[in-house]
Design goal:
Elements (H helix, E strand, L loop, with lengths): L15 H14 L10 H6 L1 H14 L7 E7 L7 E6 L2 H18 L16 H13 L4 E6 L3 H4 L2 H9 L5 H11 L3 E3 L2 E3 L12 H18 L3 E5 L2 E6 L2 H18 L10 E4 L4 E3 L2 E3 L4 E3 L1 H14 L8 H18 L7 H20 L12 H6 L11 E3 L5 E3 L12 H7 L1
Parallel strand pairs: 1-4
Antiparallel strand pairs: 1-2, 3-7, 3-8, 4-5, 6-7, 9-10, 10-11, 12-13
């Protein structure tokens, strides 16, 4: 048996070109300042000096990351539970991106074909399309799995073992370990990190894929069909018994080999007929729509932008259009069945804008600001116009041309014009 060949001399590939590319990626992703309060623009003000100094530290082995700034965000719309995020300083984000760019070409070729998260050329829609294809092939029973506190609970030894299986450059291994053990600052108090990889870290998604790639290949070896996006995955089967066996395998691999466990509350065996949530969609044999939490999250964003005490102006519409475009591009795919829901949400947005304009909520105001006004005068986009409709031959088209928006509206809006 031939000896496994590992990647050596990755440190030697760190050069000014890689440093600049890493910074551009960090700048593109934006993000808040870390514990040192240095923003991206402040770092960029002395970019060449900052990158040169960072490159010297990375190559010499003298680099030490700063603690992450801990913030908490709601886990979902109106959820009392909070999700911890760790925000590295800009300098450390650039360092993580440098290491990520060195490691990704080594590990991505080893990733399973049905792993779709944070891998070049793959995305959420491809993961959803994969499970829909499997459902069409007769795999109608679903193990809807949830790993309990995945990013917060991955043992560092498991991460380092998986990285060291392919990488022999000791300096790069020490850098990865330093990212994991940098600690966090929360309300002015330093807390060490002995487990987990922080959500918010540039390199965390790659490390998550490296760890869970082992689970992917274990499922593959047992003959199961599945799709995974980071820590969100489903296994599709033909019988409930097969799904239970898949659950047993997943639990064994997670607990005995990866130091993780399934969430008993969020993991279930269900069917395509009953439906299940995956990557923001509620997938079922009769519909493939935005799940309720996604709808509420969208509505919360719209409510923030359309408070009645503010004035309706072009800036409000521009901000609304960004939210509408982002949501519609994700949920308006050809495999979705969201058009009717989009119509309702479009009507609801117009109601919010009428109330914003006239400082009240009244159906009589439908006559004062009719549907066509929002598109022609304000330039407001609609969710519905982004819907993609398939002709069944691989071609898609938008549901509604922009100039036809004045014909649309809720029944109440249409009645008010008669």
């Amino acid at each position: 048996m031939s000896k496994k060949i590992k990647a050596h001399s990755l440190t030697g590939r760190i050069d000014p070109r890689l440093m600049r590319a890493a910074f551009r990626a960090v700048k593109r992703n934006r993000g808040a300042a870390g514990v040192d309060r240095v923003s991206i623009s402040m770092f960029e003000a002395n970019l060449r000096e900052n990158l040169d100094a960072l490159m010297r530290d990375l190559k010499s082995g003298s680099y030490r990351p700063r603690p992450l700034r801990r913030v908490h965000i709601p886990k979902g719309p109106r959820s009392p539970k909070l999700r911890p995020l760790g925000i590295p300083v800009v300098r450390d984000r650039v360092a993580q991106e440098v290491v990520r760019r060195l490691l990704a070409p080594i590990f991505e070729p080893t990733f399973h074909a049905t792993s779709f998260g944070f891998i070049s050329g793959r995305n959420c829609h491809m993961a959803i399309q994969r499970v829909l294809e499997l459902h069409d092939e007769g795999f109608r029973v679903v193990l809807d799995a949830d790993i309990q506190g995945f990013f917060d609970n991955i043992p560092h030894r498991v991460i380092m073992r998986a990285v060291a299986a392919e990488v022999a450059d000791g300096n790069i291994l020490r850098l990865v370990e330093s990212f994991l053990s940098a600690g966090v600052m929360e309300e002015g108090v330093f807390k060490p990190t002995t487990v987990g990889t922080p959500q918010g870290g540039v390199i965390s998604p790659l490390l998550a894929n490296i760890v869970l790639n082992h689970l992917d290949w274990q499922l593959d070896a047992a003959g199961y069909r599945f799709a995974r996006y980071a820590d969100d995955f489903v296994v599709v089967c033909q019988t409930p018994e097969e799904a239970q066996e898949a659950r047993t395998l997943v639990e064994r691999v997670l607990e005995t080999e990866l130091g993780l466990k399934l969430s008993p509350e969020k993991t279930q065996v269900t069917t395509y007929g009953k439906g299940y949530a995956f990557l923001g969609f509620q997938l079922a044999s009769g519909s493939r729509r935005m799940r309720d939490k996604s709808v509420q999250k969208f509505k919360d964003k719209i409510r923030e932008l359309t408070t009645r005490k503010h004035n309706l102006d072009s800036q409000v519409v521009a901000r609304l259009n960004r939210v509408i475009r982002g949501t519609a591009n994700y949920f308006g795919t050809e495999f979705s069945t969201n058009r009717w829901l989009f119509q309702k949400l479009d009507s609801w947005i117009r109601m919010r804008l009428r109330a914003m304009k006239f400082k009240r909520k009244s159906y009589n105001d439908n006559k004062r600001l009719r549907v066509g006004y929002f598109a022609r005068k304000l330039g407001l986009l609609t969710l519905e116009e982004f819907c993609q409709i398939s002709d069944g031959h691989g071609n898609t088209r938008r549901a509604t041309p922009r100039r036809g928006q004045r014909r649309l509206g809720s029944p109440g809006e249409r009645t008010s014009r008669r």
